[in-house]
Amino acid sequence: MMKHMSTINLGISVLVLIICVTTVAQTEVVTLTNDNFDQLTADGIWLLEFYAPWCGYCKQLAPVFERASTMAKGINYGKIDCTAETSVSNKFSIRGYPTLKYSINGVFREYEGGRDLKDFIEFNKKITGSPSSEIQQSNLEEFLNKDTVSVLFVGPDSLLDDFNSIAQVYIVHPDISFGYMTDVPNLDSYTLSSDISGPSVLIFNDNTKNLVEVYNGNINKDLLGKWIDQRKLPILSEISQHNWRYITTDERLAVISVINPEDSSHESFLDLMRDIGTEDKDHVFAYLDGIKYKQFVAKFGLKPEYLPHFFVLNGLASIHYVNTSIDRTAQSITEFLKAVDNGEVEQQGAGSGIAGKVTSILNDLVIKVEAAPYISLMILFAFLLFLFLVCMIAFPSDNDYGPRPTTEDYLEEYEKKTEEKKKQE
Fold it and tell me: What is the Cα–Cα distance from 99 to 305, expressed in whole angstroms?
C-alpha cells in the first residue's frame, strides 16, 4: 500500500514539475544577443523589444510584454538590451526606448500598434491569421466599420495569393483591414472614383463623402503596393503617443493640424483639412490636441491663441515648416504645401541650419564610400573624429542630466498627467 502511495506521489510530483516547466517556457521572453539574434530571428514570427535597463518606460512595459508572451500562439517574443547588444542595436539604428519591431522569417518591420495587453493580443491574432478575410454582401458593412481604412479585393480566387502577399505587409498596421470578394459588391450608397472593371482593389477611408477609390491595375507588389501605401493611413488621424512615429516617419511630409477640442468652431477647420487630405495623396494629414499638448506644440511655434492652425513636419529629418499668418482657406493651405514641396519655405527645427548641413554632408559621404570605399572611409573617419571632439567640448554629456526624452515620452507624460488630473477632479 505504501509502495503504491509512493508511486502515486512520484507521479504527481513529475506532473507538477512538467506543468511548472511548461509554464516557465510559456512565460519566457527570449533574451537575444549579438551572437544569437540573426540565427533565432531568421525563422518564424517574432515581436521584439529593444530596451535599456535604466529606461522607466521599458520597466513599465516589461510585465505587460511578459504577460502577452504567455498568451501568444505561433509567435515568439524577444528582448534586446541595447546597452549591451550594441551590434544589434546599431543594425536597426535604435534611437528611443522602448522600440518595438516584428519580423516574419527574417524580414523586419516597425510595430506601430498600442502597448497595452489588449493591443498585443490583437497583434497576435492578426499576425498569425490570414492577411485577408472573405466578405459577403451580407457582412460588407460590418467589415467596413471594423477599422478606419478598409481594403477590399474584388476578383477571382486565382489572384488571391498575390493580393494576400501585399496585404501581409500591412496586416498589423493600426486602423486597416483587408478583405476579398469574388463577386462585385452592391455599392449604391457610395461614390466610386472609377468603375470596377476586372480584378479591382477598393479602398474605403474615413472621409464623409462615402468616396471609394478604385484600383484597376495589375495585382503586383510594386504597382498595387505603392498605391495602397499612399492610402494606408486614415485621411485625418488623431495623433497619440502610439501612432506619432508611424505617422511622422512616413516618406511623405506630415501636415499636422493643431486644435482646441473644447472649441466647437475648430471642427470646421478639421473638416477643411479632411477635404484637402481626401484629394492630396502626396502628404499625410493628422491632427493634435493643442491644449493637452500645448508645451509640445509650442516647439513648433504654435501658441494657443494661434489655433486652429497647422504645421508641416519631416519627421525623418527633424525639420518642420510653419507660417502663423497664413489664411485658413483651402487655396492658401494648398499653395503653402506646394511652396514647401518646392523648397520655397524656410526650414525650422533640429534638422535645419548647421545640423541639416552636417546631415547632408554625411549622406554625401555615404554615397562616396560606395564609389571609392577605402579613401572615402578614411575621410569619413577623420570627419567623425573631428565632429566627436567638437561635440565633447561644446555639449555636456547626457549622463550628467539623464537621457533625453523622445517625442513619444513627451506625449505619454502629457497623457498621464491628464489622466491623473481627471482622477483628482
Answer: 35
pLDDT one-digit tens code per residue, 304-329:
889 999 999 998 888 999 999 999 99
Q: Using CA atoms, how far apart are residues 259 and 254, in angstroms rounded to an integer? A: 16
Q: pLDDT by residue (tens digit) across 153-166?
A: 999 999 999 999 88
pLDDT number for residue 388:
73
Q: In angstroms, how far is CA 54 from the centroid of its own chain?
A: 24
State the DSSP H helix or E strand holding residue 378, giving kind and residue range, or none if neither. Answer: helix 373-394
Instruction: Return the higher-pLDDT residue of 171 and 267.
Output: 267
Helix (H) or strand (E) holding 289: strand 283-289
pLDDT of 365 over the 60 cut: no
Q: Which of 76, 74, 100, 61 is nearest to 27 (CA)?
A: 76
> Residue 189 carries which side chain, given as an amino acid letter?
S
The tens digit of pLDDT for each residue in 192-239 reads 988 998 899 999 987 666 789 999 988 888 889 889 988 888 899 898
Determine what percent of the chain is predicted with pLDDT higher than 70.
77
* Type of residue at 307: L
The answer to whether residues 182 and 123 touch, using CB atoms and an 8 Å cutoff, is no
DSSP strands (E only) in 353-406:
none
> Largest alpha-carbon pair distance within the chain?
94
pLDDT confidence band for 333 (50 / 70 / 90): very high
Type of residue at 69: S
Q: Yes or no: say if 286 and 239 are a contact pair by the CB < 8 Å rule.
A: yes
Tell me the C-alpha distance between 231 and 209, whole Å: 16
How many residues belong to the chain? 425
Angle between helical axes of 56-70 and 2-27 (0-180°, round to 10): 130
- What is the rounded CA–CA span in Å between residue 117 and residue 110? 18
Rounded distance, CA 338 to CA 344, Å? 9
Q: Which three cell numbers stand for residue 372?
A: 571609392
Angle, helix 56-70 to helix 117-128, in steps of 10 degrees: 50
Structural contact between residues 333 and 276, judged by C-beta atoms closer than 8 angstroms: yes
The answer to whether the CB of 299 falls within 8 A of the CB of 414 is no
Assigned C-alpha cell, 277: 487630405
Residue 204, number of CB atoms within 10 A of its CB: 22
The secondary element (H helix, E strand) that includes residue 254 is strand 253-259
Q: Which helix (H) or strand (E) holds 84?
A: none
* CA atoms of 223 and 229, how far apart (whole Å): 10
